[in-house]
Amino acid sequence: EVQLQASGGGLVQAGGSLRLSCATSGFTFDDYAIGWFRQAPGKERERISCINSYDRSIKYGDSVKGRFTISRDTSKNRVDLQMNNLRPEDTATYYCNYPPDYWGQGTLVTVSS
Q1: pLDDT tens per residue, range 61-94
Q2: I need a surface site. Which of 26, 34, 38, 101 has the fewest CB within 10 A?
Q3: 85 and 65 in contact (C-beta within 8 Å)?
Q4: Rounded Cα gap, residues 71 and 107, in angstroms
Q5: For residues 69 and 73, what is the distance between their CA atoms, to the nearest angstrom?
Q6: Host H or E run for residue 59
Q7: Cβ 92 vs Cβ 44: under 8 Å
């Protein structure tokens, strides 16, 4: 059974940092890309970053480029998202995704101004 467990969310002041983790199981971690998405209240889900398996190529959405860093740890079957210089507009529930259909349960990030 494919499972993804996102953690690390919380409340932080603007300019602060958080590190999200996505623990995975039930599939061959090395064979697949993993992505991070977020969804703010009243808005559509937005893809913010993804990391491929075979070449470790990385993509970031324009809204987080230069502030967020995605990484994957093969030994732990985990993908992390380091978020720096957080802004109030980063407030959302963050989800990890094993494409196309598997989602973690989400972790809430709240950035106060």
Answers
A1: 999 999 999 999 989 999 999 999 999 999 999 9
A2: 101
A3: no
A4: 18
A5: 13
A6: strand 58-60
A7: no
